[in-house]
Design a protein that fits this description.
- The complex is a heterodimer.
- Chain A is an alpha+beta fold.
- Chain A folds into three domains: 47 residues, Uridine Diphospho-n-acetylenolpyruvylglucosamine Reductase, domain 2 (2-Layer Sandwich), CATH 3.30.43; 109 residues, Uridine Diphospho-n-acetylenolpyruvylglucosamine Reductase, domain 3 (2-Layer Sandwich), CATH 3.30.465; 113 residues, CO dehydrogenase flavoprotein, C-terminal domain (Enolase-like, domain 1, 2-Layer Sandwich), CATH 3.30.390.
- Chain A has twelve helices and 14 strands.
- Chain A is globular.
- In chain A, 52% of the residues are buried.
- By secondary structure, chain B is α+β, with helices and mostly antiparallel strands.
- In chain B, the strands form two sheets. Chain B has a five-stranded mixed beta sheet with strand order 2-1-5-3-4, sandwiched between helices. Chain B has a two-stranded antiparallel sheet with strand order 6-7.
- The longest helix of chain B is centred in the last third of the chain and has 14 residues.
- Chain B is globular.
- Classes of the chains: A alpha+beta, B alpha+beta.
- At the A-B interface, helix 2 and helix 6 of A face strand 4 and helix 4 of B.
Chain lengths: 293, 170
């Protein structure tokens, strides 16, 4: 398996990269970590005529704290999520989910921005961006703009980016107080694409009632899927087992639309969603209660 | 028109200059251009781990990188682990004289391989892992190896070999 020919550019600066994107918009692909793009090119499923490699652009790899937000450069490697102290302090959900992203060797190369822009419905990072209310900064020669994660993912491998835009930064609000988190998925083998997965966040008020909830699923539809009805059901309530079971049923029976694949029927995926929702909500609630005490 | 790009890559502390087409995979560059055939090619889409090398000291799939990306970078392949033999005939019953890295020696002693196809990738995965985790639990070992497929051993002897290596290298 060998990729088809392409023209290769390795710009040193983001300005040069944006210039190339304007010049080749539509024909060019960005090479970030390459951990999804290169396999697709090896299979010749993807045959870009121009490849713009961002690996020599300086200043796109960082994790910074900036007035109650965390800023992550788009070329930051996925591996960084596991070990960065700012991430573990302000976005513990990301840290917990990171080891589920493929294998260590893949995370050493794969970038956070690359996985977000690839928008694979089975990938973890798009789900996490939605769960964490991320804002994504896109640049082109004509300027820059911020896109909310909920407006960014438009469907299967499709995002709101224009053909000449490059994702340069991810902004995450620091995890609100009294918030518990959980990330769980079921995969045939560790590191494989998961059959089903969930990112859960639960915020409790001073009295221990649910003030905010987030439930976002991978491999459950055309993109990351948020279970808004189930979230609504939880708000203002005590998160006891009965309520959690009702929320899980709502998710698995009504809100998700998993397609099923060779490894799992859509019924089995729904079953997994039900089980994972219960487990994740319990863990997130328990963690929020621990913070409350 | 085929683009040809001049690159300089340091592999196992030796510098190589070559002209390459951009689409040449790093795995093929190592094997066919440099003759370093210790890096094996299994699936060529990032699943099997046989082509794992060290890129600037960190494990990476060489089939998921282009050779042009390695320009100016340091790479270690499985050939870089053993110390060179003083004589190519110094093979004895107890192992290869003066040669094997303690990790390789442990794989030998604990029967951590059968056909050996996956072994170079597994070794290169484990070098940074054992540096970072000198006293790993079995769970940590199995997680570290999750990206390397072995169709012979059932992994048990590989895990044993890693435990032995960790002990030797501490």
């Amino acid at each position: 398996m060998k990729p088809a020919s392409f023209e290769y550019y390795a710009p040193d600066s983001i300005e040069q990269a944006l210039d190339l994107m304007r010049q080749y918009a539509g024909d060019a692909k960005i090479l970030a970590g390459g951990q999804s793009l290169v396999p697709a090119m090896n299979f010749r499923v993807v045959q870009p005529s121009v490849l713009i490699d961002l690996n020599r652009v300086t200043g796109l790899s960082y994790v910074r704290e900036d007035d109650r937000v965390i800023r992550i450069g788009a070329m930051t490697r996925e591996r960084e999520l596991e070990f960065n102290a700012l991430i573990s302090r302000w976005a513990p959900l990301l840290k917990e989910a990171a080891p589920h992203i493929a294998h260590p060797q893949i995370r050493n190369r794969g970038t956070i921005g690359g996985s977000i822009v690839n928008a694979d419905p089975a990938a973890e990072l798009p789900v996490l961006m939605l769960a964490l209310s991320a804002r994504l900064k896109a640049k082109s020669v004509s300027g820059e703009r911020w896109i909310d994660a909920q407006d960014f993912f438009m469907g299967m491998f499709t995002t709101a980016l224009e053909p000449d835009e490059i994702l340069v930064e991810i902004e995450l609000p620091a995890s609100p107080s009294r918030t518990g988190w959980s990330f769980m998925e079921v995969a045939p083998r560790a590191g494989d694409y998961a059959l089903m997965g969930v990112a859960a966040l639960v915020t409790l008020d001073q009295n221990g009632k649910c003030e905010g909830a987030r439930l976002v699923y991978l491999n459950a539809g055309e993109g990351p899927v948020e279970a808004k009805e189930a979230e609504k059901l939880l708000i203002g309530e005590s998160l006891d087992n009965r309520l959690i079971e009702s929320a899980a049923s709502l998710v698995s029976e009504k809100e998700l639309n998993p397609f099923g694949n060779i490894h799992a029927s859509s019924e089995f995926q729904r079953h997994l969603a039900n089980v994972l929702t219960k487990k994740a909500l319990k863990q997130a609630t328990q963690r929020a209660e621990e913070i409350l005490q | 028109m085929t683009q040809s790009i001049s690159i300089t890559v340091t592999v196992n502390e030796k510098e190589y200059k070559r002209e390459v087409e951009p689409r040449l995979l790093l795995s093929d560059f190592l094997r066919h251009e440099l003759g370093l055939t210790g890096t094996h090619v299994g699936c060529e889409h990032g699943v099997c781990g046989a082509c794992t090398i060290l890129f600037e000291g960190e494990s990476a799939r060489s089939c998921l990188m282009f050779a042009v990306q390695a320009d100016g970078h340091n790479i270690t392949t499985v050939e870089g682990l053993a110390t060179p033999l003083s004589s190519p005939h110094l093979v004895t019953d107890g192992g290869i004289e003066g040669g094997l890295h303690p990790l390789q020696q442990s794989f030998w002693e604990a029967h951590g391989l059968q056909c050996g196809y996956c072994t170079p990738g597994i070794l290169m995965t484990l070098i940074p892992f054992l540096k970072q985790t000198p006293d790993p639990t079995e769970d940590e070992i199995r997680h570290a190896l999750s990206g390397n497929l072995c169709r012979c051993t059932g992994y048990q002897h590989i895990v044993d070999a890693v435990k032995l290596a960790a002990h030797k290298m501490r």
